[in-house]
Fold this protein.
Amino acid sequence: MTNLPLNIDLQQILLHWMNLAILTGGLYFLLYKPVKAFIAKREDYYREREKEAAGKLAEAERIHAAYQAKMDAADDEIHQAKLKAQEAAQQSAEEQLNQARTMAQQLLVHARTEAEHDKEQILRSSQRELRKLAAEATKKLAMEKDPFDHFLDLAEEGAKHEEC
């Protein structure tokens, strides 16, 4: 064996290098490859899970957007229905008001005609009564000697009738 200066044995160095190479190779095949395969498999698993989560998130966002669109459409429908109901209620109120006005106008016309009719009847009745009284007064005046006394008697009778 050759000894180099500083007491270095070349054979020993080569053996150590060989031991190191065998140990490194053995560890590579026994530990590094399986660990690397396990880590790669785990990375693939988590990538797949991330893709699934992203897909589910996208699906949830799509469903949320669809529900939001349906809610907006429902809100619009409700708003339109409210507007239609308000318009219908206002139109109905206007129709009822117009009908009430028409009925009031008809009642007013009817009341006026009845009042005119009653007025005419009262006038006719009072004219008949006046004619009757005038006829009776002329009869009594023609039969009695003092028409002035008779007129006063009739006036007193009329005053008594009015008081009752």
